[in-house]
Design goal:
The chain is an alpha/beta fold. It has helices spanning 9-15, 18-29, 42-51, 63-76, 103-106; strands at 4-7, 34-39, 55-59, 91-95. It has five helices and four strands, in the order βααβαβαβα. β3 (55-59), α4 (63-76) and β4 form a beta-alpha-beta unit. The longest helix is centred in the middle third of the chain and has 14 residues, at 63-76.
Amino acid sequence: MVKGYVFQRSNLTLQGSITEAVKAARSVGGFALKIEVEVQTEAGADEAIAAGADIVMLDNFDGPGLRRAASSIRTRWNLGPNSEGSRNKILLECSGGLTEENVESFLCNGMSPLR
């Protein structure tokens, strides 16, 4: 049984848009399917959240950019200050560009797992 689906750039290109990809996955997997969408911009995050994604992975942001984006997205979508107990249950993650040397610059309230 599939419990989740991650949409990365290559998947989204095939589907046409974030919205269409999430809609297609939800139609097959129903409400129990966890859908994660990888985005490179705040606009992409907004589209993923509006489409019904459960997890939004902010990919290849630098540390300061990630903190700004996470805060902005959380405010815009009324998600509360961090992912623990967030009202709309949207999980924000980050990935890309993380190393042992720079991981501290990525840590901030409002973000969940680092990949």
